[in-house]
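Supplementary Text 2. Reproducibility record for the structural model of the 174-residue chain.

All settings were left at their defaults, and a single model was retained for analysis rather than an ensemble. We include the record here because the model underlies the residue-level annotations in Supplementary Table 4.
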Amino acid sequence: MAISKSTKNEQVALVADLLSTSKLTVFAKYDGLTVSDLQNLRRQAREAGVVIKVVKNRLVRVAMSQNDTYKNTDTVLLQGQLLYAVSAEDEVAPAKVLDNFAKANPALQFVGAFGMEGELIDAAGVKALASLPSKNELIGQVISTLLSPVNDVTNALSGNLHALLDGVESKATA
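Retained model, structure tokens:
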């Protein structure tokens, strides 16, 4: 079924808007997935703050050509039926969501991604990004690392205080 020119323009505007705010745009082949599989993927993505779009590659190329950041980006990987996962909040969330979904649904295969500066990332690079911790996990790790000396000092002082109290208690009962 042919798409009207106004619908195409709306889709190009939507994709251009998503790309302009995106920190990472991952695209993957979804041949072999059922409609219910795609609905499950969209649900999981929504919970993670990721938007999943299925758009014609030609329209994505037009949207990229309208954006200064993506104007010179190589689009050679945009072939076949692709879905696009976009996140404006987290740099690795789209890769993580698709990677987690692909573990249960091997029909989903990474093709590549576009970084926030317009660089093209291949499928191996996307897999590597998917293995990175999320932004919130990294913040938690940094806070834990910063608090570990404080916890060590507290535990050491607490141990000495308990030993002192045990000694006083044993003297009082003797």
